[in-house]
Structures are given as structure tokens and as C-alpha cells.
Structure prediction request, 116 residues.
Amino acid sequence: MSGSLPNRAQGGQASVELVGVIPLALLVALAMGQLLAAGAARELADNAAEAGATAMLQGTDPAAAARAALPGWSRERASVSVSGHRVAVRLRPPTVLPVLAGRLEASESADAGPRS
Prediction:
């Protein structure tokens, strides 16, 4: 019977360690997901700016083309500006903490100016 007591104590210690590690693992997973969302926002903003610049070269509305190049969920989170031959897109990724939205915002631009 004395052999079962150390196993119970070790089992209890393992449970306590697991409870302590779970919040840390969740925090790391959330941080990785947030970085992934920020990277996706940057890629989407870049593609939208390129679509806007292409539309400008074709003589159509660059802002509308840039917005059309974004998936539905991101259109409300994006701002498109056209200045001269440059199309700029700013996109806020989805965030768990709204405080992070400004820091993780992606800003990309594309130039449709004449080439020399």
C-alpha cells in the first residue's frame, strides 16, 4: 500500500502542472493566431492595392476595384485612398483585443504611374 501514495502524489502534481500550462498554451495559440491574421491582412491589402492600380491603368474606378478585390469580411475594415497614380489600402485585421487593431493594421500601396 505504501507504493500507491507516491503515485497519487505524482498524479496530483501532474494535474496541477497541467492546469498551470493550459493558460500559457492558450495565450501562445492566441498570439500565433493574431500574427497570422496580421499577415493575412497585409497580403490582402497588397492584392487590393495592385487590383486598384490595374483598374486605374484600364481606366476604371481604382477604389471600387480595390474594394472588390477584398473578401467580404474585410471590406468594412478597409480604407482605400487614391492620390495621383497611387492606390493605398489600409486594412485592420480581426483582433481578440481591439486595442491591438491599430498596431496590427496593414498598409500597402501600388503605383500605376507611367513607366520610363
